[in-house]
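lol forgot to send this yesterday, sorry. struct tokens for the thing we talked abt
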């Protein structure tokens, strides 16, 4: 029952980004040390977009066309993920940027989650590593069975 309090899904839906423009998504962070995780995909026929995580001040500078500091960014892609551990609580902005390749509106499927400090992250292994572990486990089990059978037959 602790897990729902440690992980909050802030957005899981579709965002329309106009051509040669960007869309800002608010990401409020109540606790320092929280981890912002964001992923996105665009349809195959659409142009790529870039996800940029900035502070509120960085978003204001970005909007004014001035230099800004990105906390995390993906590059212009059809799909991407970013992860950032915030140092202090506050308002952060995820910018979905369609300025480089934007010729038409882009429908972007976006998922943003916020993981509170101290939460456990489940990690899955790649299919290749899983296969190696299964094969090694079976070989070990077969060796134990063969050794036991030999000892039992004596």
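and heres what i got for the seq, position by position
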């Amino acid at each position: 029952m602790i897990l729902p309090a440690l992980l909050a899904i802030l957005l899981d839906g579709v965002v329309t980004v106009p051509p040669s423009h960007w869309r800002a998504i608010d990401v409020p962070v109540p606790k320092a040390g929280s981890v912002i995780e964001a992923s996105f995909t665009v349809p195959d026929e659409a142009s790529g977009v870039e996800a940029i995580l900035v502070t509120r001040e960085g978003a204001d500078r970005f909007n004014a066309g001035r230099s800004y500091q990105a906390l995390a960014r993906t590059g212009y892609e059809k799909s991407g993920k970013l992860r950032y551990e915030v140092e202090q609580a506050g308002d952060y902005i995820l910018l979905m940027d369609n300025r480089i390749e934007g010729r038409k509106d882009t429908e972007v499927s976006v998922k943003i989650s916020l993981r509170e400090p101290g939460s456990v992250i489940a990690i899955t292994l790649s299919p290749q590593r899983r296969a190696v572990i299964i094969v090694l486990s079976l070989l070990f089990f077969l060796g134990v069975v063969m050794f036991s059978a030999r000892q039992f037959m004596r």
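The chain has a mean pLDDT of 89. anyway ping me if u want another try
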